[in-house]
Amino acid sequence: MLFNIFSVLEKIGLNAQKRAIHVQFSNELLNHQVFLQRIEGQHQLNGGLMAELICLSTNAQIALKQFIGVQVAVDQVTDSGQLFRTTGMMQICKNRYFENF
After folding, report:
1. pLDDT class of 8 with cuts at 50, 70, 90
2. Domains of the chain: which residue ranges?
3. Which of 5, 20, 22, 65 could form a disulfide with 35 if both were Cys (CB 3.0 to 4.6 A apart)?
4. How many angstroms separate the Cα of 23 from the Cα of each of 77, 84, 91, 99, 100?
5. How far is it, in rounded angstroms, from Cα 93 to Cα 86?
6. pTM of this structure
């Protein structure tokens, strides 16, 4: 049985509600299986934004093609407590499966 990623993380003390970064996908199935760990990116004038999202999941069997073309919204909490939203479309998806940490 697959677990909801948020319930698993909550059991070990990581509450998604208190995080400074959140991700939402236009594919609703991914929202309950994928947890954003880190974002790295570069924003350039007249060049747009290029970002890499590092995510965790309890489901190692998610087909990568489910991510391609999906709209993504990343919400970051600023130092003043406001949300700063960045949106885009998933173009490349890679699986970095680590069996042993």
Report:
1. confident
2. 5-89
3. 5
4. 12, 12, 16, 24, 26
5. 18
6. 0.73
